Amino acid sequence: MRTGPPHTRAQRSSPTATALALALAGVTVLASPQQAGAADSAPIGFGAGTTGGGGAAAVTVSTLAAFRTAVTGNAAKVVKVNGLITLSGQVDVGSNTTVLGVGSSSGFTGGGLRLKKVTNVVIRNLNISKPLAPSDGVTVESSTKVWIDHNSFSADRAHDKDYYDGLLDINHGSDNVTVSWNTFKDHFKGSLVGHSDKNASQDTGHLKVTYHHNHFSDVYSRIPSLRFGTGHFYDNYVVGADTAVHSRMGAQMLVENNVFRSTKIAVTTNRSSDVDGFANLRGNDLGGAATEISRTGTFTSAPYSYTAEPASSVVASVTAGAGAGKL
Fold this sequence. Notes:
By secondary structure, the protein is mainly beta.
C-alpha cells in the first residue's frame, strides 16, 4: 500500500542535495535500506517542520553539568553529547534545541530527558538506557513539534516491570511528534501516549504522533499505547511483544505495512480502558499474531505526504537503518 508521492529508487550523484530537495517535495528516496534511514534530513509525519536548533553553532559536552547548562533556555542551540552520561532523574531540555549523540555509543543511562512545555526539539543518535522509575527515557509533556530519531532505547527485563519507567512517553496534550528509526529493546513498557483515562479535556484533539521505521525487540507492551489522540504507525518491525499496538479511549490509529514476529496481540482496541479505541489496518505482515479490533474509525488517510514501503522490505530496512550510529 502506497500513500503520498510515488516510491522512488534511484542512483544519486549528490545524495545530500537530492535528499533535501525530495524531502522538501514530500518524497523519500530509498536507494538501499541503509540510505533509507539516513536520508531523512527532516521529519516525516505529524512532526514535520521541526528543526530544533537548526544551523546554530554546535556545542559538544561530556559531563552532566555541562549538558544541563547547554540545553537550558529557548534560544536556538545544537548540543552534541560525547560519551555516556549517568543521570539521576531527568534533565529538562529547552525549546529550539537539537540534542545529538556523537558516534554510536554516546547518550544517557539511569534517567532521561524531559521536554516540558517546550516546542521545536530534535533528539537524535543517542543511547538512552535503564531509566529508573519514576523517570522515562524521554518524556514529552505539554510540548509540540518534536522529532525523536535514530536513538537506541533499552533497559532489561530482569527486574519487576515497574523498576524502570517508560522508554518514551508522550502526554499532557503534546502534539505534532514524529518517532522514527529508533530501536526499543528489552523492556516492559515501551511508549505510552496519553497518561490517563481521565485526561480527556487536555488530550482530546492533540497527541498526534507518527511512528515509522522503528524496531521494537522484546518490549512487552505499549508499542505504542495511545489514548484520545491520533496515531500513524507504519513500516515498524515488532518482535517478541505480548500486546503491541493499543488504541484506547477513542484514539484513532492507522496501522500500515508493519511486520510482527513472535507477538501475541499485534493490535488491540479493547483492553484496559472503559472506552475502546479505533484502528484501521492495511498491508501488515502479522506473522501469526492475533488482532482485537472492535472499532475501525475514520482515520484511513494521513494528512501529510509520506511513502510507506511494503511490509516485505521492512525487516531489511529497519534492521539496517534503525538506532544510534546509523545516521
